[in-house]
Amino acid sequence: MEDEWESYDSLLDSDPDFQARKAKVEAQTIVRVKQEGILLIIKTRFPDLVELAKQRTMGLTPDQLDLIIQQIVIAPNENMARFALGDVAT
User: Fold this and answer.
1) Residue 8 lies in a domain
2) Residue 32, SS3?
3) Widest distance between CA atoms in the chain
4) Mean pLDDT rounded to a whole number for the chain
5) Domain annotation covers residue 13
């Protein structure tokens, strides 16, 4: 049975369509995890900004989300966190 799984895995590894779908799912997972991290930080530090954070993190790239994380972690107050959430997509 194990040999059959290895053969199946080998077929999947060589299928470009499968690899493309796998890469897309992995990229979406990275974005979702970063968005959840932002929301956790916002809920903890600036709970009044949760809805804004949900809206502003949709459709952003991993690099843009990283920038938001860096900025909100060091934001000294809610206004600076709000600025970080509003300024990243420009």
Assistant:
1) no
2) helix
3) 59
4) 88
5) no
Q: In the prediction, which pLDDT does 88 show?
A: 47
> Among candidates 31, 43, 46, 40, which has minimal Cα distance to 83?
46
Do the Cβ atoms of 65 and 90 come closer than 8 Å? Answer: no
Per the structure, the count of domains in the chain is: 1
pTM score, two decimals? 0.78
Region of 79 on the Ramachandran plot (φ > 0 left; ψ -120 to 50 alpha; else beta): alpha
DSSP annotation of 63: H
pLDDT digits (tens, 9 = 90+) for 46-55: 999 999 999 9
Smallest CA-to-CA distance from 83 within 72, 59, 73, 2 is with 72
Is residue 61 helix, strand or coil?
A: coil
Kindly state whether residue 47 falls inside one of the protein's structural domains. yes
